[in-house]
Amino acid sequence: MSEAEATLSALKQELEQRVLDSIEFRDQLTAVLPPEAVVEACQFLKQRGYDLLIGLTASDHWPELPRFEMLYQLFSTEKNSLIGLSVRLEGEEPKVPSIESVYRNANWHEREVFDMFGIDFPGHSDLRRILMPMDWEGHPLRRDYPLGYEEVQFTFNYDEIEKRKKYAKD
Amino acid sequence: MGIETKLGNLGAVTTSLEKAVGWSRTRAMWPLLTGLACCAIEMMASQAADYDMSRFGMELMRASPRQSDLLIVAGRVSRKMAPVLRRLYDQMPEPKWVIAMGDCCSCGGVFNNYAIVPGVDEIMPVDVYIAGCPPRPEGLIHGILTLHDKVMAEKLA
Amino acid sequence: MSENQMEISVDELRGLVSERALEGETMILNMGPQHPSTHGVLRLILELDGETVVNCVPDIGFLHTGIEKNMEALTFEKALVMTDRMDYLNNLGNNLCYCLAVEKLVDLDVPPRAQVARVLLTELTRIASHLLWLGTHALDLAAMSVFLYTFREREILLDIFEMCSGQRMMTSYFRPGGLWRDLPQGFEQAVTQFLELFPERIREYESLLTENPIYIERTKGIGVISSEEALEIGLTGPNLRATGIPFDMRKARPYSGYEQFEFEVPTETHGDVYDRYLVRMEEMRQSLRIVRQALDKLPDGPTRSNNRKFVPPPRSELGHSMEAVIHHFKLWTEGFSAPEGTVYVPVESPRGVLGCFLVGDGGPKPRRVHFRTPSFANLQALPMLSRGHLVADIVAIISSLDPIIGDVDR
């Protein structure tokens, strides 16, 4: 039994009913948790030796529900083992407690997820936009946010686009 | 014609004022150090030993916009950076020229999305566009020499 | 766009800077996006007490390109082109990370020749990236001749990349399934020539900097971080190895055949700027060792997988095989479909751990691609590293962390 499998079964014992599911896909283990159990699971895993938070992101499954999925990846530098956590969230007012108290480098990663998806992290010390300008409206990486595509100017529509395209005169 | 024959070998040269001004402007044009992204690496490579830009008068890049007269926009311009670039352009004293180096600042490049300004010519008037992703250092040097030709041909009035 | 968004009011800074700033005792200085030594467009808001830094707040996002959203609109093979442009000094390394993630998601095999060639080119990219780091790091500390020397070596490496793929920097040479094309004719001679001349050059750079008293004055004891703090804040790569923890993803979870190669992972103990410099110099030597072994081990054989469901057939087959035409048509118009599921693949880039999250949804385009980039995580450590130092030391600290702003902002 590999280290990650042993850890997963210990996590299930520790959190009892709250581990909803466990996925094994292409030799990678992921535990599915409800939002309330995330901080406790991270504290447990940190005590077991998973000392580096190596990935934190979100994914938007619109139009499927529940809409958002938070993905965490934790790594143990001594045992070289990788384990993942997945949390599904509703789309209306998505919130996940912040794990900044357990892993300090979650600070900027959670700010980026807030900026790009609009997921709130109660308990975070400083939640503001990090990549987009401060006064930007909307959350770009959501699936219903448009790509912002600009029509390409080929020879057949050269003149129509030339009329609309703005150039700086000075 | 007339004065030259009179002066002979006294070391005087006659030319038109426009040519003299054009000559002095192009032979010591100092670029502003604004490397934004990947094209900046090729700009640094063309400043280094193999493709030397100081033989064209650009010995150094000035860090302050008040002391430079050429703005080489090297790299992709994002919406957050656009007002900063415009401010830098405004701070440069006349005469000033702009080279848009690379695909991303000429037309948006590979990226066609919410975050990139499609072409820096939406923010400031551009004199020379250089294509490539990133353009080779020889491409940048060719662009600079094209700009030199353009400046030499500029009229003063 | 108004200019007001650049001016942050003192209220917004209330939580970030110390109380003394709000009373006017300390000065708030903006080290703006355009600065000769911030390695790109990084903005720092420094709170200074005289010349000493009390706090430092980085403001990033000036190079945000929306690469992740753009990749969701392209098929898997076309999205590869975007990965070169993230960390633009480690083009082949980014390609490798994304290709490994795609191959893991769709369960695609890679022939051995392609694996060894990938290792060879990735290590050459690591050397090129460290060379540029060394040049700009020395340039920031006003040692300009090192800059000119390292670019001379980098040109040789860029010639090798151009020989393989046609492009100096944005190569897109690794594709899902192997390499785009076989290695060209003069490749082995070029790499052998490079292997012969490079060790002498490393000695040259070391003779210029390692014992130099001015360099030692400016870098020893500056930007010190302990190993526990470094793991807390998520530092990886040479920055972590300089504090004493020998963590290298190539040894911890080997990928693409790295387990067959013998190399060491250099570490130092103090965790200051000087140690990070020493670790990177030694890493260049170890990469050279791997390149030598890879060149000897390079087997013959195909360079891309034969699985026609994912890899387009060569054009020579299109003349006489109907199946090849059908595969070619499907792959270039719609693209191959990936199963539903999430994979995460971490690799070691010259800056630290680069990880790729890839979420497939059954269609030809990825649902979500996210790159855990090392520079984004490393830059979080900047406020911790710079407290108590002078403004001139900030320049040395930033360049020793080796941030690439394209990597930070994606």
Give a verbal description of the structure.
The complex is a heterotrimer of chains A (170), B (157) and C (410). Chain A is α+β, with helices and mostly antiparallel strands and 170 residues long. In chain A, 25% of the residues lie in helices and 22% in strands. In chain A, α1 packs across α2. Chain B has a single domain (29-152), classed as Rossmann fold, CATH 3.40.50. Chain B has helices at 2-7, 17-27, 38-47, 82-91, 103-107, 137-152; strands spanning 31-32, 70-74, 97-101, 128-130. In chain B, α2 packs antiparallel against α6 (137-152) and α3 (38-47) packs across α6. The two termini of chain B are 24 Å apart. The model of chain B has no long low-confidence stretch (mean pLDDT 85). With 410 residues, chain C is α+β, with helices and mostly antiparallel strands. Helix content of chain C is 48%, strand content 12%. Chain C has a 3-stranded antiparallel β-sheet. In chain C, strands 6-7-8 form a 3-stranded antiparallel β-sheet. Chain C has a two-stranded antiparallel sheet with strand order 4-5. In chain C, α5 packs antiparallel against α12 (273-297) and α5 (112-140) runs antiparallel to α16 (391-401). Chains A and C meet through β3, β4, β5 and α3 of A and α2, α9, β6, β7 and β8 of C.
| Gross CATH architecture of chain B | 3-Layer(aba) Sandwich
CATH topology of chain C: Cytochrome-c3 Hydrogenase, chain B
Portion of residues within helices of chain C = 40-55%
How would you classify the helix and strand content of chain C by structural class? alpha+beta
Shape of chain C: globular
Strand order of the largest sheet of chain C: 1-2-3
Q: Please state the CA-atom Rg of chain C, rounded to the nearest Å.
A: 23 Å
Brief sketch in words of this structure:
Chain A has four helices and five strands. In chain A, 25% of the residues lie in helices and 22% in strands.
Mind sketching the topology for me?
The complex is a heterotrimer of chains A (170), B (157) and C (410).
Chain A: H1 3-15, E1 21-25, E2 28-33, H2 38-47, E3 52-60, E4 68-76, E5 81-89, H3 106-117, H4 158-164
Parallel strand pairs in A: 2-5
Antiparallel strand pairs in A: 1-2, 3-4, 4-5
Helix pairs in contact in A: 1-2
Chain B: H1 2-7, H2 17-27, E1 31-32, H3 38-47, E2 70-74, H4 82-91, E3 97-101, H5 103-107, E4 128-130, H6 137-152
Parallel strand pairs in B: 1-2, 2-3, 3-4
Helix pairs in contact in B: 2-6, 3-6
Chain C: H1 19-23, E1 27-31, E2 43-49, E3 52-59, H2 67-72, H3 76-83, H4 91-106, H5 112-140, H6 144-165, E4 174-175, E5 178-179, H7 187-209, H8 213-219, H9 227-233, H10 238-241, H11 249-252, H12 273-297, H13 322-333, E6 340-349, E7 352-361, E8 368-372, H14 374-379, H15 382-386, H16 391-401, H17 405-409
Antiparallel strand pairs in C: 1-2, 2-3, 4-5, 6-7, 7-8
Helix pairs in contact in C: 3-4, 4-5, 5-6, 5-12, 5-16, 6-7, 7-12, 12-16
